[in-house]
Amino acid sequence: MKLRHATGIAAAVVTLAASSLLSGCKHEKPNFIFMPDMYYSPAIKAQEEGAMRMPVKGTVPRGFSRYDFEVENNEELGRRLTNPLARTKAVLLQGQKQYNTYCIVCHGPYGEGDGSIVPKYPRPPSLQSEKISQWPDGRIFHVISSGQNIMPSYSTQISQEDRWAVVHYIRALQRAKNPTNEDIKISEAM
Ligand code: HEC
What we know:
This protein is mainly alpha-helical and about 190 residues long. It has helices spanning about 1-20, 35-40, 75-80, 90-105, 130-135, 135-145, 160-175, 180-190.
């Protein structure tokens, strides 16, 4: 009985000594965790099984418009997908903003395939090519919406309206490099 008592006192002394020693230390984190469950909760990675919640069937993100063309045929795309935006200054600026945000890193400032991540990333074909100049707007829109081979789709990042504005901007880049007589006349008149 006596011995137990003595041990108890000794333990209390040691504890006091230790805590006064430790009180000189700086604590960046509390050494006592009030609710350990909240610190050490089992983490589930976003893509892990069980963490992914499939949206209810038919759910679409806010502001999303459906896009599901399977065709890659110029004529059909040109006919079915026509640019709804007029080529105004505001639209060109809107397109430029999107292009400079999403496309320029690979395609370069004039679409010549000389973006800043090339050649670490494979050089994309030039958007100044005759092929792209002859593509209908709908085909360019389709590539932005669905991707093409190693180029990913931008349908989740860029709204349909912004994609059409980008198409106008690409046309402006093409005309900047290869102005038509009409463009030259306009710039001379200015
Ligand atoms: C990560 C780099 C990257 C980004 C960003 C990117 N592209 Fe591309 N793009 C490519 C590559 C690479 C190809 C060639 C794909 C292939 O092999 O068919 C390509 C192909 C294209 C083509 C077809 C060219 C052709 O001759 O077949 C168009 C049009 C195009 N991109 C437009 C855009 C637009 C507009 C954006 C921005 C919304 C964009 N790309 C963003 C890499 C990129």
